[in-house]
Amino acid sequence: MIADTIATGRHAFRPRFLKTLFIGPFVFSDSGWQWWLYDKSAEPAARLMDRHQLNGSDDSVVTLRHYKGRHAFRLDTGMANYFAKEVEMTSLRTRLGALLGKSNPLLRYTHGTAETRHNLIVDDHTGYGIRTFALGEYVRHGLPRRQILIHEYLDGWRSLGDAWREASGQAQQAALLARLERLLAALHANRICHLDLNASHIMVPPDGTAALRVIDCGKMCTEVRNPLIATALHVGKMMRDLNGHTLDEPVLGEMALASFRRIVGDAADCAKSRQIVLLACRYRLGKKISKRHLVMNASLKHLNVAALEARALTDHKNRNRLATPPRLTVPANTVGKPPLCHSEHDATAHPVSALNAVRSVRYMPLEEVRQIGGKAG
Ligand SMILES: Nc1ncnc2c1ncn2[C@@H]1O[C@H](COP(=O)(O)OP(=O)(O)OP(=O)(O)O)[C@@H](O)[C@H]1O
Ligand SMILES: [Mg+2]
User: Fold this and answer.
1) What is the pLDDT of residues 275-315, one digit of tens each?
2) CB–CB of 45/150 below 8 Å?
3) What are the extents of the domains in the chain?
4) CA-based, 20 to 30 A from 318: which of 14, 82, 149, 356?
């Protein structure tokens, strides 16, 4: 039973999911922290973390990492282990975003409130998320300055990257890939795009049959306009992470496209979505291309993949691609022609003859690519 006073103050501006799904916020001590609990079973973990903030060292709290102002801890309450992640919000705008639970260009995206909301959505809608237990907040001048997310602890789990490297033989890797595809299919069906999906943000259980889990859901779009692009980005990136160092590019591309088709079925007939798979497979997109824009705002019909590729090439991290023989992920026969998909969600409108367009890619000279990049804006 929670005996302490509920934090005073007005919570009218707090996001609805926090007020309806959580209880609190509770204040347990003079630590300056307040705690929203998903249910009462989270109380011991929240109290432990609160005590740790007040007194510093505590044997039951093990710091797993301290990196770029973020901490990760393992909490041992004596009854169970928990994973806690502390994030600091350095800008006023992010703090406002954390208070209001808003994610937009003005109030930024990377605060613990957004991550908590995304974790709940992934867990509830797909079954591939982790359980959320509590959200702690260190509030100053009415705004959360630091937040702590308390999750279930994935004991003995490995990242997909590690599991992939340690897999003995192709059969094990194929089994892992099948499990990954099921996870990506669930994200696709629920119109979710994880903007920071990589081989360390998918966890593999020690039990070979249990479902994988998606973690670090801070940068995420839900209810995306273009789930096909979202999945194309997911597949290309994962294929690059898992096999980019071991396979030649054409083989890698073929594997990514085959995987994409297994996940989205006939919707993979849409040539532009296949080009996005190859783009994400070949390039690091993070700095130069807004994935958020691609999945939320871009029109698949008017998407200029050649321009996107040219822009990706301006990222110094993709500089090694400039040195390779002129290649483009974009099948030249589609550049400048009417789009093959006539609407964002109508992949069937695309003629079957273009199904294997990517197999007969005619690569465009880089000079031409650079010119397109200059116009891309
Ligand atoms: N629930 C969990 N249980 C156990 N370990 C976890 C859990 N969540 C994350 N981890 C481990 O902690 C690491 C960091 O977690 P996470 O990616 O969420 O934090 P981060 O601060 O965003 O780190 P980074 O900047 O490296 O992405 C993960 O790569 C994973 O190995
Ligand atoms: Mg991370």
Assistant:
1) 999 999 999 998 789 999 999 998 888 899 999 998 999 98
2) yes
3) 16-152, 158-376
4) 356
As a whole number of angstroms, the distance between CA 17 and CA 104 comes to 17
Q: Look at residues 293, 132, 121 and name the one whose alpha carbon lies nearest to residue 222.
A: 121
Residue 41 CB neighbour total at 10 angstroms: 13
Q: Which helix (H) or strand (E) holds 320?
A: helix 319-323
pLDDT at 360: 35
Q: Which two tokens stand for residue 126?
A: 């797909």
- C-beta of residue 279 within 8 angstroms of C-beta of residue 304: no
How far apart are alpha carbons 38 and 18 in whole angstroms? 9
- Residues (pLDDT < 50) of the chain are 326, 328-377
Q: Does the predicted model carry a pTM greater than 0.90?
A: no
**201 with 214: CB under 8 angstroms?**
yes
Residue nearest to ligand 1 atom 9, measured at CA = 215
Count the neighbouring beta carbons within 10 Å of the beta carbon of residue 190: 17
Measured CA distances, 329 to 148, 185, 373 (Å): 42, 24, 14
**How many angstroms separate the alpha carbon of residue 134 from the centre of ligand 1?**
16
- Residue 8: CA count within 13 A, CB half-sphere: 0
Nearest CA to ligand 1 atom 29: 200
Residue type, 303: L
Ligand nearest to the CA of 67: 1
Helix H or strand E segment including 36? strand 33-37
Kindly report whether the peptide bond that precedes residue 25 is cis, defined as omega within 30 degrees of 0. Answer: yes
* Residue 275, C-beta contacts closer than 8 angstroms, at least 6 positions apart: 305, 329, 330, 331, 334, 358
Question: Under CATH, which number does the domain 158-376 receive?
Answer: 1.10.510.10
How many residues does this entry show for the chain?
377
Q: Which tokens in the block code for residue 23?
A: 């209880």
pLDDT at 207: 84
Q: 85 CB less than 6 Å from ligand 1?
A: yes
pLDDT in tens, 211-233: 999 999 999 999 999 999 999 99
Structural contact between residues 75 and 174, judged by C-beta atoms closer than 8 angstroms: no
